[in-house]
Amino acid sequence: MEGSVAFSPPGTPGVPGAPSTPASPDGPGAGPTAPPRPSRGLLPLLLVGNTAMYALYIGVGGVLLALQVEAVDPAGKVANLGLVAGVSAVFATVFNPVAGALSDRSGRRNPWILGGGLLSVPAMFLLGSVHTVLTITIAWCLGQAVMNVHQAAITSVVPDRVPMTARGKASAAVGLGLPFGSTLGALIGAAFSDDYRTGYLVLGALVAASAVLFTACAREQRLPARPSLPVREQLAAFAGALRSHDFRWAFIGRALLVLGYFAVNGFLLYIIKDHTVLPAGLRPEEAVAVLMPVTSVAMIVSTVLGGYLSDRFDRRKLFVGASAALSAFALVIPALSTSWTAMVAFAVVNGLAFGCYMAVDTALVTMVLPKAEDAARDMGVLNIANAGPQIVAPFIASVVVGLGGYTTLFLVAAGLAVLGALAVRPIRSVR
Question: Sorted alphabetically, which PROSITE patterns does this protein's record hold (predicted)?
Answer without folding.
Answer: MFS
